Each structure stands twice: as structure tokens, then as C-alpha cells.
Amino acid sequence: MSVEGSTAQPRVEYVTTKAGVRLAYEHHRPAPGRPARPTVIFSCAYCTTRENWRAQIAPLLAAGHPVVVWDLRAHGDSRVPAASGSLASPGADLAAGSAMSPAAAPAAAPSAAWSIDDIVADLDAIAEATTPAAPFVAAGLSFGGLASLHYAVRHPERVAALVLIASGPGFKNAEAAAAWAAQVERTARFLETRGLEAFVAGRAGTTCIGSRPELPAAQAAARAIVAQDVAGLARFGREVSGPAPPVIDALGGIDVPALVLVGEHDQPFLRAGEVMAAKLPRARHVVVPDAGHIVNIEQAERFDRELRGFLESLDTSEDPSRSRGGLLRGARSE
């Protein structure tokens, strides 16, 4: 595994995994002299990029936490290996018959199918590159939260705490799992036929930039999203997001502090939040008023306040389900 950097601002760094995936990330560090606090690694929702977390960086740095934001494979600036072994833009090694540049090699067979195990390995590579000697706070929104749960199951010694935002533990029920996979397939087809600009501008925009597209943070997130490669996103959906296995039966064994946070208008994930808060042994459950799926952009100030309060409770070794605000597990935060 190799690590390299660039001079771009904000500084983008890259780690190349053993599988040859080149992952893009930013590693933001507090000013020198601050007490050491756990690094927070933010994992993105499907179809979004690390830009979605931009507003969270400064508040957490001010609180003394190093912050890492990264792009999932085939998202943002992360790259996957072509079948020939060279690094290519996301999705460049997909089915034959796709458009190719004049300099490109003849189409080769697609690489092996991806799975949630690959994403766990990717997150581990990011963690090893940024905080190899200390456990970190694994934070994620939607698919990023599910990936963080899978990571905690496989690498419990590496996780200091979980922040699960607008997320769920996956679907144990076969019918529900099939319905989810079908929804992801519809998303993939929409991306392939209509493109990312239509995706962000349409109803799906609430799932990737939130319900307040006029916000500067939402607009910045949208610009990063539409710049992505459609083929890579479609492949990720079909091979990873759609068939990702559930972790619901493992929740009771994840014995770390957990913040389960969801917007009050995020109907598909309200029940999932309740389930996780009930099953995780040390969970604090927060429902943010007047927010939908992308709660960290739609209600950034409230989101940051809840997140910082949770992280402060880690410093004082309090059970986050009984923090200074008096919130009990499963309670609603108004």
C-alpha cells in the first residue's frame, strides 16, 4: 500500500490499496498543541463525494479532532484499476461496447465483482494511512453508515465510536432486500440513461444534496456529484449498495458508543434509526427537526452541535446515551 500527496487546495491525498484501487482523501489536522482526540473518518452516501462533508471539517478541527473525508471507490476522485492493471477513471473497465478514447486499449474483461468486503478493505486502507496507531470514530451517512457498521464488526479494535447518520443496518427480510436492490437498479439505470445532472436536479436530489438546494454547501456538493463517472457509480450500486448484506444480528455485539442521527422528514430511515438505537448497546438516538436525508447539509448547525456534544462525551468517558443533555437512548431531540 502506497501513500502520495498533491499540492491542490484543499490538499487531496491518495492511498493505493493492495487491490490496486486508488482512493482519494483529505486529512485535516487541528493546530499543534491541542490535546489528542480521536480522528473522525467520514464515509459518504452512494453517489455522493467527500465534498458533502465540507461543512463539518472546521467545527471538528476547532474541537481538536483530526478529520478525514474520502471518496468511495468509483466515486469522486477515487479510481479503480482497469482490467489491464492500469488505473483508470471509475467504471472504465466495464462492459465492452462503452465509449473509449482513441488512446485507450481494446476492451478487456471486467474485473471481479465488488462487494461490501472490498469497501471495508478500502476504509481500512484509509484508516491505516491516517490514524494507524489509534482507534477512530467511524462516521457515515446512508451507505456510509452501513459500511461503517460492517467495518466495526470486522475490526472492532479499530473503532472508538460510531456516528450513523440517516442510515440503517441493511435488510434481513428477503422481500425488503429485493425491493431495495430493485430501487438501486432503477437508480443505476436512471444514471445511465439520464445522467447525473438530471439525477441531482430531480426528486433524487434530496437523497444526495438535501432538500435545500439553494444552500452553498448543497451547490458545492452538487458540482462534485455531477462531475463523477456514471459507469462507475452504476457498477457500485449493482455490485455493492444493492446486494450489501445486513448487520442487524451483529448490532448487539458492537459495544462502542454510537450516535444514531436522522432527520425527522427522512421517512425511509426513521424506523431504521429506532432499530439501531434499540439494538446497539451504547447508542444515543437523535431526530433532528426540519431535516431530511442529507441532515448534515440541511441543518448543518444543529448537526454539528449534536456531533460535537457526542464527541465531547467520549472525552469525559460518559455513556453517550446519557450525555449532559439528558438524552436517553431512543429519545427524540427537539
> Sheet with the most strands?
9 strands, mixed
**CATH architecture call:** 3-Layer(aba) Sandwich
Q: End-to-end span in angstroms?
A: 45 Å
Average pLDDT works out at 87
Quickly give the structural class.
alpha/beta
CATH topology: Rossmann fold
Domain module count: 1
Name the shape in a single word.
globular
Query: Could you estimate the helical fraction of the residues in percent?
Result: 25-40%
Give the H and E element order: EEEEHEEEHEHEHHHHEHEHH
CATH homologous superfamily heading: Alpha/Beta hydrolase fold, catalytic domain
CATH class: Alpha Beta
How are strands sequenced across the largest beta sheet? 1-2-3-5-4-8-9-10-11
Secondary structure tally: strands:
11
Poorly predicted parts: 2-8, 91-109, 318-334
Number of helices: 10
Strand content: 15-25%
Rg (C-alpha, Å): 19 Å
Which short descriptors sum up this protein?
9-stranded mixed sheet, alpha/beta, 36% helix, Rossmann fold, two-stranded antiparallel sheet, globular, disordered C terminus, disordered N terminus
Describe this structure in words.
By secondary structure, the protein is an alpha/beta fold. The chain has a single domain (2-172, 245-322), classed as Rossmann fold (3-Layer(aba) Sandwich), CATH 3.40.50.1820. Helices cover 36% and strands 16% of the residues. It has ten helices and eleven strands. It has helices spanning 54-62, 116-130, 143-154, 174-194, 196-201, 216-226, 230-241, 267-279, 295-298, 300-315; strands at residues 2-5, 13-16, 22-28, 40-43, 67-70, 80-81, 87-88, 136-141, 159-165, 258-263, 283-288. A nine-stranded mixed sheet has the order 1-2-3-5-4-8-9-10-11, sandwiched between helices. Helix 2 (116-130) packs across helix 3 (143-154). Mean pLDDT is 87; it is low at 2-8, 91-109 and 318-334.
